[in-house]
Amino acid sequence: MADTVWGIDVGQCGLKALRCSMDDSGKRLVAHAFDFVEYPKILTQPDAEPDELIHDALEQFLSRNSVQGCKVAISVSGEACLARFIRLPPVEPKRIPDIIRYEAREQIPFLDDVIWDYQRLGTTSDNENLAMETEIGLFAIKRDAVIRALQPFTRVGIEVDIVQIASLAIYNYIVNDRMPDLPPPEDYDSDDPPESTVIISMGTDTTDLVITNGFRVWQRSIPIGGNHFTRALTTDQKLTFSKAEHLKRNARTSEDPRAVFRAMQPVYADLVAELRRSIAYFSNIDRTAKIGPVIALGNAMKLHGLSLYLSKQLDLDIKTVENFSLFDGPEVLSAPAFTDNAGTFGVSYGLALQALGKSPLRTNLLPKEIVRDRLIKKKKPWAVAAAATLLLGCGISIGANAYSNESVAPADWQSVETAAQGVNQQSGSLMGQKDEAVKKYEELKAKGDRLVGNVEGRLKWLELTSAISECLPRENDGEVPPLSKQRSLRITNVEAQKVPLLEEWYTGICALKGEQAPAPTSEDGSDAPPPEPADGAAADGPPMAPPGPSGEGWVVRVEGFHYHNDTNDPRLTQGAEYVREEFLNKLNDPNYEVTLTGVDISQDRKVTLGDLGIGHAHIILPGEPQEIEVESAIAQTSDEDDRSSGAGVVERSMVKVERFDFTIHFAWQPNLPTDREQIAAERLAAEQAAAEAAAAETPEE
Questions:
Q1: Where are the alpha helices (DSSP H) in 219-289?
Q2: What's the number of CA atoms in the CB half-sphere (13 Å) around residue 29?
Q3: How many other C-beta atoms can be found within 10 angstroms of the C-beta atom of residue 619?
Q4: Which domain holds residue 574?
């Protein structure tokens, strides 16, 4: 942990920085220096050059301060970030990383184009081996946004160690400075949590809304900031942006204050509406939350009457930040530039806490390749020393060899050298002939593969859909049972995604189901059998999953529902068990034979699912059947003539049924028909060899 650190917040209006350390007790933050550099223009002004303005501010910062030997943490705007909060099922703690990697691919689009990190926010456990309730915060940002944020620091030679979202830095500051009396994590009760503090951090273009009870955090970026008040004045008063900004900051002393506030009134109303809607949404998703104090951050909250207006409209007591509770440093606290702008240093405060290792939330969005390059750079002197030692050893060896060669007469090895050269020439000639033959073979094989692949490759998708259809249960001919007894599984969506390593997908599936991953392969490549429990005792821990797939392939996702959930008939298989019995077990049976009808125009073909490369099917987090209303058509006759003729009217009514929705994942590594023919030939040859071996071992009568 570094003795002193810098927390640097590069905003749209200026640069705020704090250099801090912890006191001897490890509870209070000590400020040694600060800096506040306001840009000549706001970064979003039409004629502003953001890169140059930030560069000049950092140059000015470095001219007055030194970052040598200090850890540096910076913030990025929450507007460019994605935050997801996930509740995990009961699971072993060591399985949580596997589940999170699986959930990240499901929750974050274009995962390879973003930088992401996660942290556990709240966990209660009945014992040491099972996490009963775990909430995960998953945070991501586009890679190019992080590179853009780091570029000004790289340009001036500052090495950044931590990249954090501004709203999460605010969370770190609030928990440390405003919530010193939180109960220990083991006493946290999710049904009766502490009061939630609401933080409204108004920036230049956006407002970060953070709500936290100290253990869990929720954040949202609202697209309204101080600039919106300025733009409202430019439109209403017909002013330039700089004059409108000056008028906004000095509204009370202007010639007509009422006209100024009347022009900004629509922005006031929009901000209140967004805040009210966001707080109401949070209360709906967390019904146990109790809204407590409201804290306002940012210089934009200094706008005359804004805090009072928000308090009345939201019916909440809003307090602006004028000082920090757990914060020492007389030279900093007494400086006018700090006291006048104290409300803008909340982000820097939270960044400094994280750099010191004292923050509750420690996610870091610094690209991993940058961390790796720095480690290599630090180890480079050692590598150079090792290379120099190796070169010295080689030089000594070559010198000793040259000396020994000079002491032997050339005639002693001349005949042997001539014979060796002849053998070498003959070997080179034979190797050239072999390479030419292999090249011709590869060219012919590639042509054949292209000819066959163009014909067979287009069939694999038809084979997949035909195989899925063949595995589905069907109604008996001529029978139309009630909805609750119908055997049909109604498929609503089928999609496939190609993955480079199916074993990663299978590990995530096993972790999601609470099973152990398959045993690693043995040295000869075969699956190593799991160890037997001693003395017949049951093995500890979750059940062992069967060996999974490996290598490249497709993950197929099948979504659907069924009505086979008659609760009045206990003999009827229902819910997830019905899906397993009628569909999943077939997909997992490599010997289950399906007829590929209409796939090949020459004939219908029978083939097993194992030969098609289908298997390892799992139902994902099955729930319970839910009661819904569906429309049912009932034929009614009007008179005797209609009944005799079969004519009548159709009455439609709503009936209540139990519907079960399901999602199934399975692996698919398609084998083309020619591949299947080769597999069948190899299988037949193996069976014949086994039969011959068995016959040879049978004694003659």
A1: 226-237, 241-249, 257-285
A2: 32
A3: 17
A4: 455-519+543-670
Helix/strand/coil (H/E/C) assignment for every residue in 168-216: HHHHHHHHHHHCCCCCCHHHCCCCCCCCEEEEEEECCCCEEEEEECCCC
Token pair of 634 as six digits: 């009932």
User: Are residues 502 and 667 in contact, defined by beta-carbon separation less than 8 angstroms?
Assistant: yes
The alpha carbon of 462 is separated from its chain's Cα centroid by a whole number of angstroms, namely 32
Verify that 461 and 602 share a domain, yes or no: yes
pLDDT of residue 209: 93
Q: Is 17 exposed, middle or buried (0-12, 13-18, 19+ CB in 10 A)?
A: buried
Rounded CA separation 301/287 (Å) = 29
Q: Are 499 and 374 in a shared domain?
A: no
Could you report the per-residue pLDDT of 476-502, keeping only the tens digit for each?
776 778 888 888 999 999 999 999 999
pLDDT band (50, 70, 90) for residue 158: very high
Distance CA 475, CA 488 (A): 7
Is residue 373 domain-shared with residue 474, that is, in the same domain? no
Cβ contact 248:303 at 8 Å? yes
Is 502 part of a structural domain of the chain? yes
Residue 695: inside a domain, yes or no? no
SS3 540: coil
Contacts of 17 (CB under 8 A, 6+ apart): 6, 7, 8, 9, 34, 35, 36, 61, 65, 348
CB atoms within 10 A of CB 364: 17
- As a three-state string, the secondary structure of 321-346 is CCCCCCEECHHHHCCHHHHHCHHHCH
Residue 515 maps to a domain: yes
> Is residue 599 within 8 Å of residue 461, measured between CB atoms?
no
Task: Name the 3-class secondary structure at 239.
Answer: coil
Return the DSSP state at 665: E
Burial class (CB in 10 A: 0-12, 13-18, 19+), 149: buried
CA 266, 270, 274 angle in degrees (round to 5)? 170
pLDDT tens figures, 656-699: 889 999 999 999 999 877 777 777 778 788 888 888 888 777 66
Number of folded domains that form the chain = 3
Q: Are 566 and 572 contacting, i.e. CB atoms less than 8 angstroms apart?
A: yes
> Could you tell me the CATH number of the domain that includes residue 311?
3.30.420.40
Cβ atoms 16, 29 nearer than 8 A:
no
Task: Indicate whether 285 belongs to any domain.
Answer: yes
Rg of the chain over Cα atoms, rounded to whole angstroms, equals: 36
Rounded to 5°, the CA angle 25-30-34 comes to: 165
Q: If you search the block for the tokens 């500890």, which residue do you land on? A: 540
Q: Is the distance from CB of 202 to CB of 296 less than 8 angstroms?
A: yes
